[in-house]
Amino acid sequence: MERGDLDKAQGLAKKALALDSHSTPAWTVLGILHLRRQRYDLAIPAFESVVRLNPRDKQGHLNLAQALTKYGDLEKAKQHESIYRQLDSKQPSGTNRNP
Question: What is the pTM of this model?
Fold first, then answer.
């Protein structure tokens, strides 16, 4: 993804998910790729998978809020932004509680 080859990155993320459908890093990469391509209808379910698999993934909630905002679902976006803020306030600075 860093090299700008979004198609290859997407292919690798899909291969990773075929091997482990519970891989939050792969779902995150897929969601970010869809965000970059402005495919919010595809980014939303990817980020929903992230927060379903790890409800404490604050970045997942923030990414989902961003995708929902771009998609126009402001009510759901506010819910996930609120969850993000709650998780962020519970985490001491400089630490990462996500497994």
Answer: 0.84
DSSP secondary-structure letter at 49?
H
Confidence of residue 97 (pLDDT cuts 50, 70, 90): very low
Query: What is the C-alpha to C-alpha distance for residues 94 and 53, in angstroms, rounded to an integer?
Result: 24
Helix ranges restricted to H, the chain: 6-19, 24-36, 40-53, 58-71, 74-90
Buried b (16+ CB within 10 A) or exposed e, 1-22: eeeeeeeebbeebeebbeeeee
Chain mean position to CA 86: 17
Give the model's pLDDT for residue 93. Answer: 56
In this structure, which amino acid lies at residue 30?
L
Give the end-to-end CA distance of the chain in Å, rounded to a whole number. Answer: 23
Burial of 60 (0-12, 13-18, 19+ CB in 10 A): buried
Dist CA 6 CA 75 (whole Å): 30
